[in-house]
Amino acid sequence: MAGSFALSSGASFAADLDVKDWQAVLAKAKGQTVYFHAWGGGDRINAYIDWAGQQVADRYGVTVKHVKVSDTANVVSQIIAEKAAGKEEGGSVDLVWINGENFASLKEKGLLLPMSWAPDLPNYQYADIDGKPTLTTDFTIPTDGLESPWGMAQLSFYYDSAITTDLPKSAAELLDWAKKNPGRFAYPKPPDFIGSTFLKQLALELAEDPAVLSSEATDATYQPVADKLFAYLDELHPHLWRQAKAFPDNVSSLKNLLADGETEIAFTFNPSDASASIANQELPDTVRSFTFEGGTIGNSHFVAIPFNANAKAGALVLADFLLSPEAQAVKQDPQVWGDPTVLNIASLSAKDKARFEALDLGIATLKPEEFGPALSEPHASWLTRFEADWTKRYAVQ
Amino acid sequence: MSSRTTLIAPAVALILMLGPILAGLAGSLAPAFGWLPVLGGDAVTLDPFRALFATAGLGKSIMLSLAAGLVTTLIALLITIGLLGAWSGTAFFRWIERLVSPLLSIPHAATALGFAFLLAPSGWLTRMISPDLSGWSRPPDWIFPHDGLGLAMIAGLATKELPFLLLVSLAALPQVNPRRHANVARTLGYGPMSAWIYAVWPRLYAQIRLPVFAVIAYATSVVDVALILGPTNPPTLAVQLTRWMSDPDLEYRFLASAGAILQLAVTLFALLLWWVGEKLTGRLFRHLAVSGARFQQDLLLRGAAAMATIAAVLVMVLGLAGMGLWSIAGLWRFPDAFPATLSMRSWERQATMMGDPLINSVLIGSLATLIALVVTIACLESENRSRRKTSRRSLMLLYVPLIVPQVAFLFGLQLLFLLGGSAHSLPTLVLSHLIFVLPYIFLSLADPWRSLDPRYAQLAASLGCGPWVAFLRLRLPMLLRPILTAAAVGFAVSIGQYLPTLLIGGGRWDTITTEAVALSAGGNRRLIGVYALVQMALPFAGFLLATALPALVFRNRRDMKPVHG
């Protein structure tokens, strides 16, 4: 049933727009306005999207409006509401910045453009599909060409080297460190994205057999992992910032706490966040990064087109531009955003390679070889259970 | 004008304000009982309420909402009484009086952010006294804001509501003849404060009772301030149900709708408790008044009232100054009292990004204000011509949009607009702002309009001028000043709207306020500072225009100069 629905809409879409015929896409996109729903909490990110929009307007005549979202879940909710109200055409979201859970939820409910389009984008040929497995499986869910890669991420920690000298290199050491430095570590309250990532990192490290996390959680596989995770958290919480009676909101509050000297160790999913924040005068230039020796969670983020997008061709053109070597190189510059590229640098032309080689990644960014292995995200079902249990145990005091 | 046409304006006003609220409430009520066929809810059931009452921490959320409503209002009202009773007519009071309008134009979210910037453990105050006075080289580990009892939230809200209650009291005072009543009590040997409280306060309170109710209702259901200053585990009911409403899992919409109905009940319960409190205090005071105690020594109380007022004003002004400083700060580490370097970079960067949000804010605000002004003036003019005064009951209706919690009907309204296919359009967005702008404009303009001496119009009529001439050449110019002030109030209300702009505008209509909230999610204080200042500058510009224009228009009309009492 779902399959036949997908097939028929896909066919009708394909009838009026063939991604393989890129000239036709460009022609159709000209004059369209693309509403790009993307998190709007970072001024450098906003400025980058603004820049990309201007490029696309100059080159292809596509107007980009950045709808600044405070939580991507709201976008999912909006698309669902439109579906519920029977709005099959002319939806309000043309392109959405997305990953993991929200992608899983949109894909499962059939709320994305029901056809594989990403691999047909001209710039997709440079994407590092072989070297970066997370480009085709987002939180263990196959992307099936329903979303186009935009950036890479790996969990990394940072600290002020003028204040902190002893660094924990694993979850177990982090617990000891927190006991020795009460009130100087915090993690954001799940379901905040980075807070949830921290839970997943702990679960992967603490599990007897981390391999079980890569398939759907069952009652039998879940309980032993959860027991270890929550035993750890029970022990950690009394030593956290505000004794875990209050939690920071998100990755930015975490950074503010470190900047204010309230905490000593913070973490981020964007490896050059610390360097970029130094450049932005948000952090002192004595801040440095470190990571766990056993590796940390890594993943990719994407852009996707909802089933009822109004400017589908324009959205394709924007997605392709975001994937271009030029746009990716500008994005990786810590002075601009500092988000690691999804491209395979070796496959680029000499001119494009030079763009990446010229980048100064910044003093507080770890080099690729300093990172431990990138651990895969657990199957999306694990986090749903972790979050429910977390809320039950800690959200009311 | 025939009696039928004179009824049109009030009817339009009521439809504009109450229509969307009733429709929205219906839109919330149906899913609360499980009925929303498009989402697969096609049976009337109590399941959403069962799920709601099974939510962990719900009782505490409700208590927090009640405390936010009642304690906040009590504190703000006590300071208002103290200030008016102890300091009316003094230089100190005139100084506060001048500050009221600018303080009122600071948006709630900006006040709350300023409050947090100032009073957090690593805030400006501790920075000023650290490390020399406090001995702290690192910020202390206090839970403030976000403390479990909601003290930060209550203090922040009370600070913000004080100027509002002061303003409505100042507007109402001339009608209750305070000096004469207080003097009579003074001659009977009562101390200055007790004389005022016994003789003037009951009369004044009768006049400002509805605005007090509006404050209670607002504070029980506020979302942005509770997010910034309130407890997190669990948060207040309004914050909780806003989260459910934006959950990607659509099942939560049923829970959220039930929560919206509960929010309405909690707000009404808070009003009921207040009403009971009114009766009890009234009885207590009647008892005290005949007891013979005259409280002649009230210096301590007078001092406390002044201190509390000064503290509230200082917190607001310093909070704002702190945000201004952050907006131009380079690196600013604890415990430095001032940033190590200053830079205009945040302003320069944002200047290019602010165009659309500024235009949208001004466009939506101006349209809503203009429509509300026309409707209000039509209502008041039809009153003039039909010689019928609006009854007390219809005045209650004006307060309905201010008393029904936004979250209780906006989600329902959003769903209705979506189903009707008109969501995200400018007219629906302006309509959603109008719900809140119209009552404020009506309340600001009604008293000055009604108190214009009718003999002017009688004189005009005796000279053979029709009602339109009296309206266009007499009432409009003579009332230009209050009309513009009302417009400034309405514009300020529109600028501050976050939830309606977000929900009804569907993210398509960036305003300075939606931008400010999106950026505050990013936690960058330099940006928050920039946007909070701009967010405050807009309504402030409105108030400035409202004062400057009449001065310009009437520059050669001596008797149209503002009267300073």
Radius of gyration of chain B: 25 Å
Multimerization status = heterodimer
> Helix coverage percent of residues of chain B?
over 70%
Q: Characterize the largest beta sheet of chain A: strand count, sense, and whether it forms a barrel.
A: 6 strands, mixed
- Alpha-carbon distance between the termini of chain B? 38 Å
Overall shape of chain A: it is globular
Task: Give the strand line-up of the largest sheet of chain B.
Answer: 1-2
Mean of pLDDT of chain B: 87
Kindly provide the radius of gyration of chain A, computed on alpha-carbon positions and rounded to a whole number of angstroms: 21 Å
Please characterize this protein's 3D structure.
The complex is a heterodimer of chains A (397) and B (565). Chain A has 397 residues and is of the alpha/beta class. Chain A is built from 14 helices and 11 strands. In chain A, the strands form 3 sheets. In chain A, strands 1, 2, 3, 6, 10 and 11 form a 6-stranded mixed β-sheet that branches. Chain A has a 3-stranded antiparallel β-sheet with strand order 8-7-9, covered by helices on one side. In chain A, a hairpin with a 2-residue loop joins strand 4 and strand 5. In chain A, helix 2 packs across helix 11 (312-322) and helix 7 crosses helix 8. Chain B has 565 residues and is an all-alpha fold. Chain B has 25 helices and 2 strands. Chain B has a two-stranded antiparallel ribbon with strand order 1-2. In chain B, helix 2 (47-53) crosses helix 13 and helix 3 (58-87) packs parallel to helix 13 (252-289). The mean pLDDT of chain B is 87.
Q: What features would you highlight for this structure?
A:
heterodimer; A: 397 residues; three-stranded antiparallel sheet; 14% strand; globular; disordered N terminus; B: 565 residues; mainly alpha; two-stranded antiparallel sheet; 1% strand
Quickly describe the structure.
The complex is a heterodimer of chains A (397) and B (565). Chain A has 397 residues and is α/β, with parallel strands linked by helices.
